[in-house]
Amino acid sequence: METKAGNLTFEKIKANVPGTYSVDHGGDERGTLTLNADGTASEIKPRIGNDKGTWRIQGGVLVVQCGRAVYLFTEIKGDGVFFGSFGSSTYNLVKR
């Protein structure tokens, strides 16, 4: 599975992953996701509410679980920009 942008891998950038991200789906911002240094996460979805969760690097993939949703970010597109999926939908995380 390709998880790199240049020579970057999720394992190499793990310390830089924590932060607040816009969740983009098809060009539309769908909410905000905060990944904390302690491995916790919080998802803020407009009009739906807040979900608490976790994040980790597993098997070369950034795994984010909030509520019942599990997002798998498999590609580093650039500095603070990750591409992945939830079910059959694709998403970008863009660090703010």
How would you describe this protein?
This protein is mostly beta strands. The chain has one domain (10-95): Lipocalin, CATH 2.40.128.640. Helices cover 4% and strands 62% of the residues. It has an 8-stranded antiparallel beta barrel. The radius of gyration is 12 Å and the shape is globular. The model has no long low-confidence stretch (mean pLDDT 85).
* Shape field: globular
Describe the sheet with the most strands. 8 strands, antiparallel, barrel
CATH architecture classification name: Beta Barrel
Number of helices: 1
CATH topology: Lipocalin
Whole-number tally of structural domains: 1
Q: Give the C-level CATH assignment.
A: Mainly Beta
Helix residue percentage: under 10%
Which strand order spans the largest sheet, edge to edge or round the barrel?
1-2-3-4-5-6-7-8
Q: How many beta-strand elements?
A: 8
Task: Name the structural class.
Answer: mainly beta
Give the end-to-end Cα distance, rounded to a whole number of Å: 27 Å
If you compute it from the alpha carbons, what radius of gyration comes out, rounded to the nearest whole angstrom? 12 Å
What series of H and E elements makes up the topology?
HEEEEEEEE
Low-pLDDT stretches are none
What's the overall average pLDDT, rounded? 85
The proportion of residues in beta strands is: over 45%
